[in-house]
Amino acid sequence: MGFDLEALREAVKTHGKVVRVVIAGIKGSSPREVGAAMLVWKDGQSGTIGGGTLEYQAAEAARSQTVATRLTHHTLGPDMGQCCGGAVSLFSEVYDLKKVETLDDTIIARSASGGATPLSVKRVLAAARSQGIAPEPRLIDGWMIEPVHKPARNLWIWGAGHVGRALVDVLSPLPDLAITWVDTGPERFPDVIPAGVTDLPATKPAELVRHAPPNAEHLVLTYSHNLDLELCNRLLLHDFRFAGLIGSATKWARFRSRLAALGHPPDRISRITCPIGDPSLGKHPQMIAVGVAAQLLRPARQNELKKDLSA
């Protein structure tokens, strides 16, 4: 997890003054990890630091915050209606558009009380920049250090029908996914596109495959079997980390035959996964979306993808 600069920028553009509350330190058990954050504005909020009384009180305090930065400490005991038994430190900062534009786009370090940068912080920043390795979120000598969040995975969803929309609803809140959503026209998409999702209308979607990063993951679920087939063909000519096709075993048998006729060898065709998701959950779009999301996020899938990358 890191500092989601893009989410903060969008929130400030939409709501004006926004307070970002981040877990800066933990002792014992905690409902969330260091670096977990939420954004709070006058009549709403996004993100979570773990819910419950802690989050409620932190959000209320953020709405009345008058100082630029504040570091507070909280015991997670019976007084809060929580039995974690631990303690957390919260770093709360007020942002407007002007302040957001001053932030670094790689590592953000700031103090709760001002003053010169201590040597301990300078060393962490120097090591991170010289080695090209993002530091873990942490509080050092009153300074909060966080790497700017960069989504680790590129996911392309081809199709904005019922299942495509359900998938975007399920997957878009996940911080490690940068989602590109493709369909044949703007009328195919909902009026509101979730944050972190890039909608891309194109009369010929298959022409966009060449623009996808070679390590991208793809879910093919358009309204047209012919378009699905062309996307599979283009993906096999391109490269990808994972490709899943919605459909039955019968559909996949036909596709395998047609892809082979297009010149793709069997081992290459086998890189596409079909069917996708968990058929035992049912065929309702949201049920399909939950199954596909679990398939993408399951640790075993991650290990398999890592093996593919190292091959």
UniProtKB/TrEMBL annotation:
<dbReference type="Pfam" id="PF02625">
    <property type="entry name" value="XdhC_CoxI"/>
</dbReference>
<dbReference type="InterPro" id="IPR003777">
    <property type="entry name" value="XdhC_CoxI"/>
</dbReference>
<dbReference type="InterPro" id="IPR036291">
    <property type="entry name" value="NAD(P)-bd_dom_sf"/>
</dbReference>
<dbReference type="InterPro" id="IPR014308">
    <property type="entry name" value="Xanthine_DH_XdhC"/>
</dbReference>
<dbReference type="InterPro" id="IPR052698">
    <property type="entry name" value="MoCofactor_Util/Proc"/>
</dbReference>
<dbReference type="Pfam" id="PF13478">
    <property type="entry name" value="XdhC_C"/>
</dbReference>
<feature type="domain" description="XdhC Rossmann">
    <location>
        <begin position="155"/>
        <end position="296"/>
    </location>
</feature>
<feature type="domain" description="XdhC- CoxI">
    <location>
        <begin position="13"/>
        <end position="64"/>
    </location>
</feature>
<protein>
    <submittedName>
        <fullName>Xanthine dehydrogenase accessory protein XdhC</fullName>
    </submittedName>
</protein>
<dbReference type="InterPro" id="IPR027051">
    <property type="entry name" value="XdhC_Rossmann_dom"/>
</dbReference>
